[in-house]
Amino acid sequence: MRAMSNLPPEWGGRPVWAEIDLDAIASNVRLLAGRATPARLYAVVKANAYGHGAVAVGRAALEAGAHGLAVVCVDEGEELRRAGIEAPVLVVGHTPPSDAARVASLGLRPTVGSMDLVEALSAAARARPEPVPIHLELETGLNRHGLAPDALVALAERARQLPGIRVEGLFTHFAAAEEGDQRFTRRQLEILRETSRRVPWIPERHCSASASVLVDREMALEAVRTGLSMYGYRPAPWCGTDADLVPALSLRARVARVSELERGATVGYGRMWAAARPTRVALVMCGYADGYRRSFGNRAHVLVRGRRAPVVGRVAMDMCMVDVTAVTGVAVGDVVTLIGRDGEERVDADELATLADTISWEILAGISARVPRLYLRGGAVESVTTLNDRVPAPGR
């Protein structure tokens, strides 16, 4: 059998799966935390940790030195709490007042943008031993749901007077930190600093996400929020070129059938590809419902037996087809790498994002919940999550 330096672990379940290298997550978190020090690091695990799995990634990030985790909604925070994670969990998205009781009971740190929510949180906190720590978002140019400086200062002063409320953080969200011209970003930072001088009693300020952590330590302040870089990708090619980030996710599937097609035979819906010569085509059990986009048909390449092979025809909901004529010996059961490394070859999320005219964030976050996740440490499977349950690794 041909030697391969990146053999995936044995997996006998559904013939498509994602491998999540928790050692890579830990390595990236340690690198980012070192760059941000002495600032605290919030590991962003919203959107199921960008498709990687929020609970397993959150635990790995905390073990590697993250101070806390960041999510976008209360449901995501509750998932972490139900898994037994007790670290600080910052909710950076909009929280309606109707969720105040859940926030208080779960011990989350919500982003607050209205007195209605502050009052609801205060009422919910009265029956609890600890106050609810809140963070206020300053609008500096993204124009989503932050508050202008005067409005934020007024809300902060009113909130600190209410029982059960502790105003813990003040933050902003950069609009263009991954762009080469940093003038707008630096102006956003200055607005944050100016505003913080009006509320010096708020202990924690944060604005840096992945791009700023990688390129400008001055912006770290008291805390940072790292998302994409924690998963091994740069927000832009020029960001942190000296940082040894390790991509953590591989997406793989198995060959379910190999067909011999005559010249002129077509493949897939719409007959968008025809064989220009006698062709061997492999049926691969991964489609757009798994997160492998329909637009990759006739454009993307996968890795089979360490070789690149083109995807042909339209990607279907549950499968795609690959021309393996140039790859010797492809057989049913062979592993196909759609994202990741096989031998010396690699396909990464940046490559696929370029083909789809999007960004790597969307490629990674788009891997659906029905794809099993295999969590690896030291190259061995530590745990598995499927659509329905969590099972122990073999022999454990």
Automatic annotation (TrEMBL):
Cofactor section: pyridoxal 5'-phosphate
Annotated function: Catalyzes the interconversion of L-alanine and D-alanine. May also act on other amino acids.
Record has Secreted as a keyword: no
Name assigned to this protein: Alanine racemase
Pfam family of the protein (one): Ala_racemase_N
Sites where the protein binds substrate: R144, M317
Gene3D superfamilies in the cross-refs: Alanine racemase (3.20.20.10), Lyase, Ornithine Decarboxylase, Chain A, domain 1 (2.40.37.10)
Domain Alanine racemase C-terminal: 248-376
InterPro entries for this protein: Ala_racemase (IPR000821), Ala_racemase/Decarboxylase_C (IPR009006), Ala_racemase_C (IPR011079), Ala_racemase_N (IPR001608), Ala_racemase_pyridoxalP-BS (IPR020622), PLP-binding_barrel (IPR029066)
Family of this protein: Belongs to the alanine racemase family.
Active site: K46 (proton acceptor), Y269 (proton acceptor)
Pathway annotation: Amino-acid biosynthesis; D-alanine biosynthesis; D-alanine from L-alanine: step 1/1
Residues with PTM N6-(pyridoxal phosphate)lysine: K46
Keywords tagged on the record: Isomerase, Pyridoxal phosphate
